[in-house]
Write a structure and sequence with these properties.
five-stranded parallel beta sheet, 5 strands, alpha/beta, about 55% helix, Rossmann fold, about 180 residues, globular
């Protein structure tokens, strides 16, 4: 069993890679966002980018920087099949998953203007924002010295494979396919 973690900037294509791995390579998908959204609902809060960030940081502070992905990794172990954990956001998450072995971190990025257009097309509950807010949200999640908060820049630097995704879905899938064939 291998576990792939996926990190990357907002709207870069994390979900596209997940969809490819699930549909074409039989991976199980474990979503950090879904895990946090469930906790938000349990707390009676509204799911939006601010509550996702707030609750994720709270869970990490109360437990450990890797608490969320550790819980998802345990679920993956119980199933025992190749799995992908989306979306890795802290250095502690990467380090914890790496310590388990058979782990690879994928990062995906694209220019901000392209990613913003994708986010607007996606239209999820956290995507109804203007370009300035999009950039501010990303800046907030890009770097920190607090191990319990998002540090996308560090996670991307720690990636085993980085995918630049300013082209088509087919182009991204082809690059992912080549890497997966080597890993499997």
């Amino acid at each position: 069993m291998i576990v792939i973690g996926i990190t990357g900037t907002l709207g870069a294509g994390k979900g596209t890679i997940v969809d490819y791995l699930v549909k074409n390579k039989g991976f199980n998908h474990f979503s950090v966002r879904s895990f946090i959204a469930q906790e938000i609902q349990n707390r009676g809060m509204t799911v939006n980018r601010d509550s996702l960030t707030e609750v994720a940081n709270d869970l990490r502070s109360a437990n450990s920087p890797s608490y969320i992905v550790d819980a998802l990794y345990s679920q993956a172990l119980r199933i025992g099949k190749n799995s992908i954990i989306e979306s890795i956001r802290t250095q502690g998450e990467v380090e914890s998953l790496r310590a388990n072995g058979n782990f690879y971190l994928f990062a995906v990025d694209a220019p901000a203007e392209i990613r913003f257009k994708r986010v607007k097309l996606r239209g999820s509950e956290t995507d109804n924002i203007d370009f300035q807010t999009f950039l501010q949200n990303e800046k907030r999640e890009m770097t920190t010295i607090d191990p319990n908060k998002q540090n996308l820049k560090k996670c991307i630097e720690m990636a085993d494979f980085i995918f630049e995704n300013s082209g088509t879905i087919a182009q991204l899938e082809e690059r992912v396919k080549k890497v997966i064939e080597k890993l499997l």
